[in-house]
Specification:
Length: 302
């Protein structure tokens, strides 16, 4: 890692240091003795970053970042259907990090959200948040049917309220973890098991719109992460005109950036694209605007 990043990590406030040590599986650092020449936390972070290798940013094609969530938590955490995988945390080339709030489906939090936020804060990276929106299972529908602004005497009202409740819980966790973001990216994709979407695009759209309303009430701008096919299969032809983060799957930067100029998902402008490998989801800003302007609009400053 570069000396500047190492200095930033070592200089982090005590709370951030302890949280970073926890997410890396290291013991809390003791006070160094007069003979110490290295900080054990610095060694731990440097080793973590070196093992991942740098991400590269190609001039004119957008600034590079990554997104992380429950797969990047230490192995074996989380719900049975989404056990965490211990995938790498961001390397030194990631200019920004988008952090997921859920352990896959709604109502199930990212089990190491606080530690991930502390880690990224220690690296002084721009941050944003995303959350998966899911259809409620029967127990959730019963538990949260009245946990929103709509009357619970109709199916539509109950579904809307469960979407609202998902979002409300995510906002609370986001704030508790200290994750700052001007936007919430709505991740709309299949999550099965344990929470498949229904066969009714109207019902699915009602859940989504309940979540959207709650996030907006919390003061968050909204964007959409999805593909045209997935979006239409889940919520039909809904057109909200929200900013879009477009995934390209297991491909490369060039193929992903082509999505910046290709068909929209729900009528919004492209902001980000994503491509994936076995261990890392990499993101790039769509070209056309100065990167600094896009970062200031869609991310919280370090």
């Amino acid at each position: 890692m570069s000396s500047s990043i190492l200095e930033q990590v070592v200089g982090t406030v005590a709370a951030g240091v302890l949280a970073v040590a926890a997410v890396l599986g290291q013991p809390s650092p003791a006070s160094p003795s007069a003979s110490s020449t290295r900080d054990p936390l610095a060694d731990a972070v440097e080793g973590q970053l070196r093992s991942q290798g740098p991400l590269t940013s190609v001039p004119g094609t957008g600034t590079t970042g990554v997104d992380i969530s429950w797969p990047n938590c230490p192995t074996g955490m989380g719900i049975a259907a989404r056990r965490t995988l211990g995938k790498p945390l961001p390397g030194p080339g990631a200019r920004y990090v988008i952090i997921g709030l859920t352990n896959g489906p709604g109502f199930h939090p990212n089990p190491c959200l606080g530690d991930q936020v502390a880690y990224v804060r220690a690296l002084h990276r721009w941050t944003a948040a995303y959350a998966v929106v899911t259809y409620p299972v029967p127990a959730e529908l019963q538990a949260y049917a009245a946990a929103g602004p709509r009357a619970a005497d109709s199916r539509s009202g109950r579904l809307y309220n469960t979407g609202w409740a998902q979002a409300t819980a995510n906002v609370a966790r986001m704030r508790h973890a200290g994750l700052r973001s001007p936007i919430l990216w709505l991740d709309v994709e299949p999550v099965r098991p344990p929470t498949p979407w229904s066969s009714s695009t109207r019902d699915n759209r009602t859940v989504l719109e309940g979540s959207m309303a709650a996030y907006r009430q919390a003061g968050l701008r909204l964007g959409v992460y999805s593909t045209t096919y997935l979006w239409r299969s889940i919520v039909g032809d809904a057109r909200y005109g929200l900013p879009e983060w477009r995934p390209a799957g297991p491909t490369g930067r060039a193929a992903a950036l082509e999505l910046c100029g290709r068909g929209d998902v729900q009528g919004g402008d492209p902001v980000l694209v994503q491509w994936s490998s076995t261990d890392v989801d990499t993101d790039a800003l769509c070209p056309g605007r100065p990167a600094e302007d896009v970062l200031r609009e869609y991310f919280a400053a370090p």
